[in-house]
Structure formats: structure tokens, C-alpha cells
Amino acid sequence: MYSNIGKKIKVLTVIITVILMLGALGTGAYFIITGLDYFDYGGEYFVYLGIAIAIAGPILAWIMSFMMYGFGQLIDNTDKLVKLAQVNKAADAAPVYTAPVQTPVVPAVPVAPAVPVEEPAAPAPEPAKEEPKVVEEPKEQEAPKAEEAPAVKFCINCGNKVAPHVAFCPNCGNKM
Questions:
Q1: N- to C-terminal Cα separation, the chain
Q2: Contact 61/43 with Cβ under 8 angstroms?
Q3: I need a labelling partner for 116 at 20 to 30 A (CA). Which of 12, 31, 90, 126 fits?
Q4: Angle between helices 44-93 and 5-37 (to 10 degrees)
Q5: Which residues have CB under 8 Å from 140's CB, separation 6+?
Q6: 157 or 82, higher pLDDT
Q7: What is the per-residue pLDDT across 96-113, written as a single tens digit (0 to 9) for each?
Q8: Separation between Cα atoms, residue 36 and residue 34, nearest integer Å
Q9: CA of 87: how far to CAs of 57, 75, 77, 79, 94, in Å?
Q10: Which one, of 21, 29, 68, lies nearest residue 49 by Cα?
């Protein structure tokens, strides 16, 4: 009786929605027909009411079905999660094989030192106290004038002699 309740709720929702829609259409038709019979005596209000029921009734039944059908879907998804949790719990309960670990045997460490010390070491000298030095910033050198330009340059990368007007080293291709 209580197995697969989510699907049963969804089927019941569809059946109730169809019954409510047909009932709203039937009630609307009844009001329209009754209003037409008494149209001369103020029955036009029954006609308007019948049209409103025939239009709004099925729409409201359809909207109401969203909540009921969604509740059935929620129960279906919850059942799936419970089944999945049971499968995972069974997998977690399975024994896990662990290899036995043997600790290595280490011989006892001797307490006495291997070489006896006759006298203790001299204390370390205290570090010298240095006063901070003032560092002077190097002065910018002026670029050599055209007549003082060196006749030969040397490549920084490979040390090859290069003519002063060349932009790249012909030996290694480094930019001058």
C-alpha cells in the first residue's frame, strides 16, 4: 500500500485535476444555460458568472496540480536518495584489506660517546660589532661623445669583437 507512494500521488493529482477541470466546465455551462433561461429577468449575471467559472476553473485546477504533482516528485526523489544512501552504507561497511606492517628492528643506541672527550671545547668568540657603513650612490657617467666612441665593441653574450655600428652580434645574434 505504501510502496511507490510518489507515483501514486502523481497519478492521483492528474485524476483530480481532470475531474476539477470537467467540474468547472460543467458548472460554468450550467450557469450559462440557467442565465439564458432567465435572461429577461436579470439572468445576464448568471451568464457572466458561468463564463468566469468556465475560464478560471480549469486554470486554477491546473495551477493547483503543480503543487500536488511536485509533492509526488519530491517523494520520488527522496526515495531514490534513501536507496542510494543504503547502497553507499553497505559499501562502506565492507572490510578493507590492509597489508601487515612490520617495524624494522633497530639495535640499541649506545649511551656513551664512541670517542671520549678529554676537555670541553672552548667557548665561541662573540661576534664583532660592526657599525653601519654609508653607501654612496654611484654618479651617473656621461655618455661618450661621438669622437670618443670606441672603435670596437665586444658582445656581452659570447665575447666576440663587433663593429661599433652593428645592432646585433654576427656570431650569436645577441642584441648589442
A1: 91
A2: no
A3: 126
A4: 180
A5: none
A6: 82
A7: 777 777 777 777 666 676
A8: 5
A9: 46, 19, 16, 13, 11
A10: 29
114-136 as b/e: b if 16+ CB within 10 A: eeeeeeeeeeeeeeeeeeeeeee
170: Cβ–Cβ under 8 A, 6 or more apart, which residues?
160, 162
Specify burial of residue 25 (Cβ count, 10 A radius: 0-12, 13-18, 19+): middle
**CA torsion, points 105, 107, 109, 110, in degrees to nearest 10?**
170
Rounded distance between C-alpha atoms, residue 50 and residue 29, angstroms: 6
- What confidence tier does 150 reach under pLDDT thresholds 50, 70, 90? low
